[in-house]
Amino acid sequence: MDDPYAFELDPQLQADTVLVSDWHLCQVRLMNDSRYPWVILIPKVPGVAEIHELANEQQHLLLEESIRLSTALEQLFSPHKLNVAALGNVVRQLHVHHIVRFQNDETFPKPVWGIGDAIPYDTDALRDTVNGLQIALDIL
């Protein structure tokens, strides 16, 4: 019988993202939208929608993993700004967006949500982006 408490990725997150790495607390997933370097941390804790619902140790680990990811994104992309947010208005499952922003990107300085349509990576660009992220994340 399946474990009713096992982590399951929300179908929308599964459809919109690509697995980059699997850390202690979170899955690290790239949003399949080539307009922005956009990575999401998803805590592998069933039934959690908000950060405060995590145990204290998990909250600290989420912050550590977010800092690790943020540092890698800044080193890889040298952004004007790194947007980090946990909204959950469309997908209730707790996930934390890390979006690299440039002054010349399509929506700057507005939020990325609701403006334009996602442009999926082509096969080569997706492979190169995931590989670059994996290398940067393993170094840190």
Automatic annotation (TrEMBL):
A Pfam family for this UniProt protein?
A: HIT
InterPro entries assigned: HIT-like, HIT-like_sf, HIT_Hint
Q: The HIT domain covers which part of the protein? A: 39-108
Signal peptide from the UniProt entry: none
| Superkingdom of origin | Bacteria
Q: What is this protein called?
A: HIT domain-containing protein
